[in-house]
Amino acid sequence: MNGKFGKRVFTPQSMIEILTDIVRAAPTMPGTFTSGRISPAFRERILLAVTSVNRCRYCQWVHSDLAAANGISGEQIASLLGSSTESVPEEEKVALLYALHYAETNRNPAPMHRQQLIDTYGAETAQDIENWIQLIFFSNLSGNTFDAFLSRLRGEANPEGNAIFEAMFAVLSAPVLLSLAAISKNSVNPLASLKHN
Asked: Which structural domain, as residue segments, surrounds residue 66?
């Protein structure tokens, strides 16, 4: 086999950078989780938007189920996983476009887009949105790095990956990710007809 694993994964450096961003945001996280500024459905749309870019299959499974549980239709879930914001509530579009931009630029959004986020939602809600984006970005790369190791075992290595790092990461993350895979296979997934690579 000579295929390549093409999803974005952690490198030791990117993992440290992303964790550093999350630690910096840590003082604002309790408010993000408890304030109610972001509704559960809005949160799930943000998480699906970022996941649509990074293509983590574990996050697709879990957050498709959570989105459906929070009243988001299968059609809207599929649309979000296709990086489309056409069917989302108008008041959420700026946030969802920012989430896509953040992921597409690999955590380097243009300052004008961040300012538009603040201007639209206010500083606290904009911080909540960024916190959810950072957390799902970390989760996406966690799942992808685990899958990169599995892919390497099949002879389809990520050209930017590191076998030793991937192996260590896979061992540490396996209990969580394999549990998520088992749970999602036993649940009703509104996207069962879509292929998750």
From this structure: 12-25+38-185
Q: Is residue 197 part of a domain?
A: no
Here the tokens at position 158 are: 């990520």
Looking at residue 15, the DSSP 8-state letter turns out to be: H
The whole-angstrom separation of Cα 98 and Cα 109 is: 8
| pLDDT tens-digit map of 146-165 | 999 989 999 998 888 888 99
Half-sphere exposure of 67 (CA within 13 A, CB side): 29
Task: Burial-class residue 121 by CB neighbours within 10 Å (0-12, 13-18, 19+).
Answer: buried
Give start and end residues of each alpha helix (H) in 122-189: 123-153, 163-185
The tokens describing 194, both together, are 């879509």
- 12-38: pLDDT as tens digits: 999 999 999 999 999 999 999 999 999
What the block records as the tokens of 7 is: 């999803």
**Are 145 and 169 contacting, i.e. CB atoms less than 8 angstroms apart?**
yes
Query: Which pTM was predicted?
Result: 0.88
